[in-house]
Each structure stands twice: as C-alpha cells, then as structure tokens.
Amino acid sequence: MNKKIAGFTFIILLLSLVAFSKLTSLSKSQESIRNEINFSPQSVTAGSDSQYDIDLTMTNKGKFKINATVTINNASQDQWNDIVFYFIPNIFTEKTLLELQNSLDVPSIVNIHNIALDGKRIDYDLDKDKLTIPLLKKLEPGSSVKVYFDYEFTLPVGGVRFTMNNDNYHLAQFYPMVATYREHHWNKEEYRFRGETYHTGFSDFKVSYDIPEEYTLVSTGEPDGNPDKSIGTFKVENVKEVFIAILKNPIVIQKQKDNINIRIFGFEDKEDLYKEISEVATDTLTYFQEKIGPYPFTQLDIVLDGQGMEYPGIVTANSIYNSGTVNPDALKTMVIHEIAHQWFYGIISNDPYHNAWLDEGMADFSASLFHFATSGEKIPYESMNEKLDKLEQLPVNLPLDKYENNMSSYVYGKSSTMLWNLFRHNGGIEEAEKFLKAYYDNYKYKEIDSEEFVRFAKYYFDLEDDSFFEDWLLLK
Ligand SMILES: [Zn+2]
Q1: 391: pLDDT confidence band, cut at 50, 70 and 90?
Q2: Where are the beta strands (DSSP E) in 20-79?
Q3: pLDDT at residue 75 is higher than 70
Q4: What is the C-alpha separation between 161 and 31, in angstroms, rounded?
Q5: 412: CA distance to ligand 1 center in Å?
C-alpha cells in the first residue's frame, strides 16, 4: 500500500513537472490571447427544447395535485418514436424503493390519472424514474408535441431533494422533466441516490399554485411578491429546472444589494446566525458577480433546511446526506458552495452524471477562490496536493456509477485541487478570476463537457498538448 502511494506520488511529481514546464513556457502573454476573438466555443446541444406549464394545488393534508402541459420540440437531427421524461417522484414510492433495495419510513404515494398526447389519452411506460411516452407517429426534427399530465403525489419523509423535512415541503424534480437527446438516443441514466443523475436543457416555465394559507411558498420564480400569498403564478425562462419550497413559519432575513434581494429562511431561534449567513451570502454574490459575471435573477433565496443543494435562484443548506445539521462554519461554507452553483450549473450547464466535476469541482474551486481572495490567507497547495496522494489515480470525470464510495474525493476534491494547480504557476488568484470571467463569457447558457473545457483551457493558456490534463481527466 505504501509503495503504491509512493509510486503514485512520484508519478504525480513527474507529471506536475511536465505540466509546470508546459505552463511556464507560454509563448504569448495571456492578456493578448484573451483579447483575440478567434476562439469559438463548441457547446453540447440539448437535442430537446421544452416549455412547461404547471398547475400545482396542495391540500391541507399534504397531498399535491399537478396538471402540467409540456411542449417539447425535437431539436435533434433524428426522427423520434418516443419521448423520455425523468419522473423522480416515482423513485420514492414503496414499490420502487423495494426494487432499489431501499426503504423509507414514509414513502411517497404517486397516482397518475391521465397522460395525453396532443389532446389524446395514451398509454405510457413508467420504470423507476423513467417515463416513456410512445409517439403515435414519428416526430420530425423541428416539430413539436404537447404532453399533458394529471397526477397526484404525497412527499416522502427522508427522501432526497424531493422530500418532506420538518414541517417543510421540498418540491424538487416534482414534475416530468424532459431528458436531453444526443448521439441518437435519449440521454437518460439510471437513478442514483448519490449525486445528480438527471440532466435537462434550459427551459421556460409558467407555474400556478394554490396552497393552504398557513404556508409560505418560495421558488425559482421571482420575485414571488408577498411570500405569504397562497395563490399565485410565476414565470421563469432559460433555467434548467424549477424548485419550490413550501415552508411552515420561517424566520425571514432580507437584504438588498446591487438590486438583488437576498432572503434567508430559517426555522430555529438563531437570528444572529441567520444575519451572519445573510452577510456571507451577500459578499459571495457580490464577489462572483464582479469577478465572473452577472447573476441572472433579482432574487436569491436561501432555505436553511434539508440537504445542501442548488436550484436556479434558490438553494437549500442545512445538512449533508444522511448526517444531521452541520455546524455554523460548515453551514456558511455550504451556502457559499451552493451560491457558486448559480454560475456552475445554473448558467454554465454540464451533464451531472457524465461530467459532475464541471459543476461540483468548479463550484468548490470558485468557493475557495472567494475565500482566499477575500481573506488574504495563503493558498495551501502542499496540503491540497497531499490529499490527492491518498487517492487511487482515478480521473475526475468518470460517470457516477464508476466510482465506489469515494466519488466526492474526485468530483469535488481532486478536480478543485487540479484547477488550483493550473493557476499555481499562472498568475494565481488574479488569473483564476480572469479565466472564470472568460469561461463565463464563452459558455453562459450553454452546456460544456470535459473535452471542451480542455480545448478552452489550452487555448486560454496557449498550451501545446493535453499533458496537464491527462492525469486527472479521461479524454475522448
Ligand atoms: Zn455542489
């Protein structure tokens, strides 16, 4: 074991030296490269293009009724025989949990009453979270169909993201979400309880809601107006998904900065902590807007309940998978990480099953960039790299099912350290900030993958080959 680690360290050292020599032999100044306009980003196309019209009603007993119409355009080059949706509420039913060798004290109950295609009731296939709608006739590229859904559900207790927590309802992925379509097939992977196994394109949403008066609804939509209103509508465009939290008696701290309303929703007698979090969130948002690019909404909601998770315009933070509430410092770090996702996931998209590092690693990296840029602390390159020595030599961009229990060490940890190594001899913090701005300008509202990231970084730093990336990214 020790031998293996020593060998690994030597290889890393050698590769670092090679990478270092590459990175320090820049033939042009980075400034002049940045000003050239001959780089054109080659983003990954979603292949499907959707608009969602969702009508949500919640009864006093915590039962939700959904009527949704989804308009799907075939943005691929192929004729379609079917349309594939993620239908994640079905994962938490007793039946599916049993199939997945899992269980919950309170599973969800899901009843689908009717699915109709262009006004005609149809049969469908539902297998775990995969909902397949067969098309009556082939859908040509550029053509669209409307699928109507009428269903009811209750939330599980102890679910992942789609869950009831304390007295709050977390409605994540509660509607049928159109999958992306690429390389001649629907890009729908098996559901996993760890990591994000769903991937959607940027879409437009209109949501109407009617909930019991004692609850407060907060969501991706903005501004929600009076959050105490129990009946309302919101519209939001060009987002990967919509999240709604229905909250019981939250403590609300609000702050305005740069025309953005930052709201903290807490549930305990911890007003001082909530104020501190409000300050941290404001500073984070200001820094990222200044250094990376504009935040796209006029409101940011931070719900201090449930697991740390990002959604467009709203994040949740309080706990990590299955382990309880984190301490105040860890909570602040978590909030910063989830805010960073507004850029890396929310604005620059990536497939979180096949390229999770592009949102998790970039969010971790930019969160630590914010920390070191604002605290003046020295960047601990040695200790960051020492942590890598303890890992096996896996790349950071394997599909989620290819990692065992150590996915986070690669997708978050190793990728963020390797990004720091990239800037270590290339201008440090200042150059990292400029790089992220250029990255944002090139890829905002586009999807990027590992190969395209490398193409961009090589261009940006004028690198001759892939050698810096080869020991941590598996490239096609
Ligand atoms: Zn994250």
Answers
A1: very high
A2: 48-58, 63-74
A3: yes
A4: 43
A5: 8
Cα 356 to middle of ligand 1, angstroms? 9
How far is the centre of ligand 1, averaged over its atoms, from the C-alpha of 398 (Å)?
Answer: 17
For residues 205 and 346, what is the distance between their CA atoms, to the nearest angstrom?
A: 15
Inter-CA distances, 24 with 161, 398, 422, 469, Å: 44, 29, 11, 15
Strands (DSSP E) along 97-180, which ranges? 110-117, 120-121, 125-127, 130-139, 144-154, 163-165, 168-171, 177-178
Burial 304-334 (b: 16+ CB within 10 A, else e): bbbbbbbbbbbbbbbbeeeeeebeeeebbbb
- Determine contact, residues 91/78, Cβ cutoff 8 Å: no
Distance 411 CA to ligand 1 centre (A): 10
Across 48-67, average pLDDT? 97
CA 16 to chain CA centroid, nearest Å:
30
Distance from the CA of 133 to the center of ligand 1, in angstroms?
32
Q: Return the amino acid letter for 85.
A: F
Residue 468's nearest CA partner among 436, 406, 426, 437 is 426
Distance CA 320, CA 318 (A): 7
> pTM score > 0.85 for this model?
yes
| CA-closest candidate to residue 297, choices 265, 263, 261 | 261
Hey, which bits of 312-357 come out as E strands?
314-316, 319-320, 323-325, 348-349
Q: What is the distance in A from the centroid of ligand 1 to the CA of 300?
A: 17
- Separation of 332 CA from ligand 1 center, angstroms? 14
Of 175, 206, 219, nearest to 64 (Cα)?
175
Structure-block tokens of residue 201: 């394109």
CA of 188 to the centre of ligand 1 (A): 21
